[in-house]
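batch_manifest entry 22 of 60
target: Beta-lactamase-related domain-containing protein
source organism: Coccolithus braarudii
requested by: lab member K.T.
priority: normal
notes from requester: please return tokens only, no post-processing; we will run our own comparison against the previous entry in this batch. if the run fails, retry once and flag.
--- input ---
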Amino acid sequence: GGGERGEPHLPFIAVRHHSVGSSMRAAGCVGVTALSIALLAVAMGSAGYPLQRVLRRLYNVNMLFHEDNIVENFRSMHELGFPHMMVSTRDAPIAPLEPLADAAPLPSTFEWNGTTVNLSQWLQDKWTTGIVVIKRKSLTKAQLVYEHYGRGNDALSRCVSWSMCKSIVSTMFGIAVDRGIIGNIEKETVTDWVPELRGTGYDGVRLKDVLQMSSGVAFNEDYFHPFSDINMMGYTLAFGGSMDSFVASLQREREPGTFNHYVSMDTQVLGMVLVRAANQSLSAFLEEVLWSKVGFESSAIWSLDNEDSRMELAFGVLGVTTRDWARFGWLLLNEGLSPASGERLLSKEWVAAATAPDAPHLMPGKANTQSDYPSFGYGFQWWVAPRAEDPSLPGRDFLAIGVYGQLIYISPDDGIVVAKNGAYPFYASMQQAGSHENDLEIQGFHALRAIAKHYAAVGGAW
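--- output ---
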């Protein structure tokens, strides 16, 4: 399983999706200073790396999010020199999306922060590269009610997940729990599975607290600060270092299970547990339990940390088509039943637990001072939407969110999934002053919720 190994070259610098610091919280890359580049080049060269490879890594890392490169890079991560793994569908049956000849257009507007926003203009202005809206008609039938691509993308473009990958890892974790290869997440700890992390911030932390981004580990994800934790992680990758070793360097700052602090390394730790529990790579396990069973039409591509340890970057670097992101949402809309076959892939109980906050620090609402990002609630690596009538209460709709404009919005009440990819290079300009929250994602949620309500009203939901 796991498919073909890609040609190794450039590791990746700093990814995350929500977080700390005045910077933001997501997959990102530091604007590497000239001094940092020089120091890295000298150090890597002295360590035996060919200088050409050193310079290529540093150049690609530094230019990854540049306005002139970002769109092409986001659909071509596997061509930038990163080591990677292909995740095959194994030619399994595809879950069909039935096109509608007379489908209604998108709604003209959506509401955000007391203002009416032109939806089409917003999608264009925010560099949307693909949007797919599907309306479920039965467990294994769905209509493709809207599809559009921009900025050179098409239905075959594999769009980098950034932190939407975290929701994939959560789903894989749930399957492992359902199969009994991982036990009670309320009792089992990280170090039950990864004893190398004894004495670190993850020592004795319950698996559930890691799933809920409440590990208590200290981590600064300000990727505009050259020496933040997220950028030190990036330097580790640029050196060809191991993600497992980097995780082992982290320490605790608060009691686990008390504060919703978004730490991308929490997801990397979940990946470490999964590798040991499944006794195979993340790519191989993903192919076995999801990619060959859900009804995806294209293979996926998962970036790795380096050419030796070849550990998947679980926290956010998976390339998937926009249609297949929508099919992943369809699996969750089906409460774990395959859109292709109706087979149960994930328990209904896991889906319910994964998409609902169950503690005060995980609830939505500005009154929650124990969360980095109280506009949403939080489950097991899924964001939970606030209720429209009372934003301090969780709704039934939920999201996967990735930096620079990646979203999967799932509305069980409407029977709708909306998948959107983007490559907005001015993400920093939408950071809320004095807050960890970013308006691109909050606006995106309101836009996609309006789209779902619009299409649910056309013909009714199943």
